[in-house]
Specification:
alpha+beta; 11 strands; elongated
Length: 264
């Protein structure tokens, strides 16, 4: 009886637990609107296809582009004003230096009248006030240019966010349609990274022990794949199991194929 009991136990030790996992895209995300706007274009033909490089959703940006062009023209005009005032300031600085020098000389002359000295001081003071006023205007113009440049950058960012571009991504589903108005955070499309694939498993505690040294078998064939990621907290749904992922190359045809997986 003892020998029979040992034989019955042997298969439990030798054979790993069999799992079945669906070949899924490596990553699936829902793109959401970063800005508000009216949907003016939706590329329905690209839905369900691999998009190499293309705009699939466009929000109305006509007024933003007009605003951007006006802002850029304002920056050009402000820079011209700044250049003019910098030249004026340079001339005024020379006047201030001459008036200061003249006042310094005449104030020391005993032969100069009080009126001459007062006039020299007033000329010096007036030139300096005008120079400082121009310098203040230069600072104000520099601040206005910075504000306009920031506004232009914000408009460029808004315009860019109103064109939803995909690069080597699988467009699984378009959620919006032409004529919809979206607010920030509104779902726009579901996109998947199909450049590679993954298998999602739920393993028992004993299966994840020394998992780094275990081999992965797919449909009874030994592979060079490894378990790439293991959650060390039990799954919310499968409360006694731990989620694990195996990353594999993307299939040549379609996803969703069911594979037999063993880890041993």
């Amino acid at each position: 009886m003892k020998k029979i009991f040992l034989l019955l136990l042997t298969p439990l030790v030798i054979f790993a637990k069999v799992h079945y996992a669906k070949v899924e895209p490596y990553e699936s995300v829902v793109l959401k609107a970063a800005v508000s706007g009216l949907v003016t274009e939706v590329d329905l033909k690209s839905e369900g296809t691999m998009v190499a490089s293309k705009r699939v959703i466009h929000l109305d940006d006509a007024l933003d582009k007009v605003n951007l062009e006006d802002t850029k023209r304002s920056i050009v005009l402000l820079k011209q004003m700044l250049e003019i005032n910098q030249k004026i300031a340079k001339t005024l600085r020379g006047t201030v230096e001459r008036q200061e020098s003249y006042y310094g000389r005449i104030s020391k002359l005993s032969t100069a009248s009080k009126t001459q000295k007062d006039n020299a001081y007033n000329s010096f003071s007036s030139a300096k006030t005008q120079y400082l006023g121009t310098k203040e205007k230069i600072v104000s113009l520099q601040k206005q240019i910075l504000d306009m440049q920031y506004k232009a950058a914000m408009l460029e960012d808004t315009i860019a966010k109103k064109s939803i571009m995909l690069h080597n991504k699988y467009l699984y589903k378009l959620i919006v349609r032409e004529g919809d108005f979206v607010a920030p955070g509104s779902p726009l499309a579901q996109v998947e990274d199909a450049s590679r694939a993954k298998l999602v498993l739920f393993l028992e505690p004993e299966e994840i022990e020394e998992i780094e040294s275990k081999k992965v078998y797919l449909d009874d064939r030994e592979t060079n794949y490894k378990v790439n990621k293991v959650w060390r907290v039990a799954d919310e749904k499968f409360i006694s199991s731990y989620r694990a992922e195996i990353y594999i190359p993307a299939p040549k045809t379609t996803f969703s194929k069911l594979l037999k997986v063993e880890i041993k």
